[in-house]
Amino acid sequence: MVDNQIIARGISDPRVIDAMLQVPRELFVPEAARALAYSDQPLAIGEGQTISQPYIVALMIEAAAIGPEDHVLEIGAGSGYAAAVMGRIARTVHAVERLPALARAAGERMRALGIDNVTIIAADGTRGWRAHAPYDAILVPAAAAALPPELPDQLAPRGRLVLPLGPASQQRLIRLTRREDGGLAEADLGDVRFVPLIAADG
Ligand code: SAH
Fold this sequence. Notes:
Blueprint lengths: L1 H6 L6 H9 L20 E4 L2 E3 L2 H10 L7 E5 L5 H7 L4 E6 L2 H14 L4 E5 L12 E5 L15 E11 L5 E8 L5 E9 L10
Parallel strand pairs: 3-4, 3-6, 4-5, 6-7
Antiparallel strand pairs: 1-2, 7-8, 8-9
The protein binds S-adenosyl-L-homocysteine.
């Protein structure tokens, strides 16, 4: 998986590659889908949600340029796979998942794997998680029509926010970087397709 789907497509950050080699993706998919765990696609994880395609996980983490001192927030923990991969790179990962059954299963996976720097709660993440802010990186693997306004506020200086924006048919992966002068620099990382980010009020 890492050679054919990640390195061959241009992901070159050695930290991302190492972390993906360390985290067993088959433990993050339902038992019936184990045979497909390393295939080049998103997979259903129940409750109408998916574990992202491996390449997309790598792309988002590389775009967020996560380093060993970083504090990371993920909004939409799903299976917990991306959080576990980031946990192998960053100092801490806080992850929010709106569906309690998924949040619980993801937390159990972290305990089973002995990953103790990743904390997952069941909550609406559209307003971030202010208690642990600021973050060096915020990843949102779920698409919103517009930028949730409270997320960039929770970025540290030089922090990166990576998220898909736009309607289902034409989402773009966007990176916003908090500049020294306090402004935000924007980069467009291309076409993507994610499940929707759903706010607490629906
Ligand atoms: N990174 C995950 C895949 C995430 S799929 C993995 O590696 O498995 C997107 C997830 O975002 C879904 O589980 C969905 O329930 C969750 N989600 C959608 N809206 C949300 C919100 N407002 N707050 C928190 N989680 C949300």
